[in-house]
Amino acid sequence: MKKALLAGLLFLYPLAVYFGLQFSEPALVAALFIVVLLARYWLIKDSKAHFTHMKIITVTGMCLLAFATLANSELALKFYPVVINSCFLAVFAYSLYNPPSFVEVIASKFETLDEQGKRYTRTVTKVWCVFFVINGLIATATVFHPDPKVWLTYNGFISYLLMGLLMAIELIIRKWQKAKNKSNEMADQ
Highest taxon of the source (predicted)? Predict the structure, then answer.
């Protein structure tokens, strides 16, 4: 329950920043999220879901938030989604050059992958890399938009919607691909 609550708080980061900046200093909002990240880290540090990559992303996020706190910087707060997106891009892209791919690591926790499955997860990792590049560019543009509602709308709604859509499409394709592979195997017998 605590893990879900903390994950929800991180999910609501753009909304909390948008409204938090209307009622307090950026330093206070940033400090609050440092506490949330620390609490999340300590709650999941021993769980199977806590990959080394996630530690890197968490530490990077905390460093940016520490800077936002010390500098009392609204701009640094708004760059948080860009930095986290860039971290995910780096982790996913690095895994393509130092296999297994990140998606393969996640998928192998739920199922045994054959060579075809490993190739598929590698392709999905590449698709996520493209997504992170595009998402990062748009998120960066919203940081500099004069209307803060644009930043909030993209980073607090549209980007999550696009991520969910990509996950759903990938799930549909994966199930279709598995069914196709299974029917091909049966036809070969």
Answer: Bacteria
